[in-house]
Amino acid sequence: MNYRWILGAALLAVGTGAALGAPAKDAAPSVLVTLTALHQGSLARTVSAYGVVQPGAAGQRTVMAPASQTVGAVYVRAGEAVAAGAPLLRLVPSPETAAAYAQARSAQRVAQQLATRTQQMFAQHLATAQQLADAQKAAGDARATLAALDAQGANGPTVLRAPFRAIVLRLSAAPGALVSAGTPLLALARPEALVLKVGVTPAQAALIQSGESASIAVPGQAQPIAGRVEQRGAMIDPASGLVPVQIGVPANRLLPGQAAEATITVGRTQGYVVPHAALLADDQGAPYVVQAKGGAARKVPVRVLGTHGDQDVIAGAGLDAGQPLVLSGNYQLDDGMHLRVAAQGAAK
After folding, report:
1. pLDDT by residue (tens digit) across 306-345?
2. In what order do the strands lie in the sheet with 178-179?
3. Does 201 lie in the same domain as 291?
4. Left if phi > 0, otherwise alpha if psi is -120 to 50, otherwise beta: which for 6?
5. pLDDT tens digits for 37-49?
6. 214, containing H or E segment
7. What is the mean pLDDT of the chain?
8. 338-341 and 30-36: which strand pairing?
9. What residue numbers bound the domain in which 327 lies?
10. Residues 90, 72: contact at Cβ < 8 Å?
């Protein structure tokens, strides 16, 4: 009897031990992730282009020789900044201009004497009213001719001065050069009237309108500069094959010839705004995101409508605004895999 009791107890112990020591069935795999809400929004739609800072058409002035003269002295150099009223060039009348001025001064003196004598004769009834009118007209014409030559600097050396605060863009004159009337001597530009001239493709140009804002990035400068589109070209530049766009820049921030990149805001793109880290690509390169549905992963194919900075605008028929978006750990997930959500503020 005791033998049977001992045997039964031993068998019970073995059975219990076997049950306790049996390996547990494998648990389903899970991935530690962080989540973020999926929400509708918009991002700026932009066009980026590179270009060079140039003087605007309204801020340029070409200084020309007023008469046939000789360049006596040059006081500036190309690229130099000059104040308003600063001397630029000294011009000396050429022999031809000096002779023309002498003749005009002599003609004016003779014409005035004739007009005075005719006036006296008219008072004595020795000249007609018509003769007096002709003499007075001749005197007036002679004065006008002399005044025009005076204005051109034909009466002596003339110093040409800067009409405004300017940058000397080009210098075409050299001391001793003989220049005729209308010859360009130098080109000036207002430093507060500079533009960034960039080139865009015809498709991009169709999106751009005058007045749109632009952000200008300059190599070596940490902060971008705000600008605004002043003009969008209506034809292609044969030299570059692009459509020129002029962007106004703030005064005293850039220099002529400086290279920069402009990002022009041409509108807004509507859709779901997501961090770029949430966007993945499958083996065929098609974009998708992962949403959390009841603690399990769900892959959703999407279309990328726009990108700005580190964010994207996406759309997709399978997106559910009520399901959070997997932000980190998403690249490890397949459909149906269990999720373990990291605590708020946990290290990633």
Report:
1. 888 899 999 999 999 999 999 999 999 999 999 999 876 5
2. 158-161, 87-93, 69-74, 178-179
3. no
4. alpha
5. 999 999 999 999 9
6. strand 213-217
7. 87
8. parallel
9. 30-43+269-341
10. yes
Q: How far apart are CA 162 and CA 57, in angstroms?
A: 18
What φ, ψ does residue 64 adopt, rounded to 5°? -120, 160
The end-to-end CA distance of the chain, in Å, is 67
Cβ pair 219, 259 in contact under 8 A: yes
DSSP, residue by residue, 274-295: EEGGG-EE-TTS-EEEEEEETT
> What string of H, E and C letters represents the secondary structure of 227-254?
EEEEEECCCCCCCCCCEEEEEECCCCCC
Write the pLDDT tens digit of every residue in 206-252: 999 999 999 999 998 889 999 999 999 999 999 999 999 999 999 88
Dist CA 20 CA 296 (whole Å):
31
- Among 250, 268, 286, where does a domain finish? 268
**Main-chain dihedrals φ then ψ at residue 119, nearest 5 degrees:** -65, -40
E-assigned strand segments in 276-343: 280-281, 287-293, 296-301, 303-308, 311-315, 325-328, 338-341
- Read off the amino acid at residue 82: V
Q: What is the pLDDT of residue 274?
A: 95
pLDDT tens digit string along 140-189?
Answer: 998 998 888 777 777 778 899 999 999 999 999 899 898 888 899 999 99
Same domain, 73 and 39: no
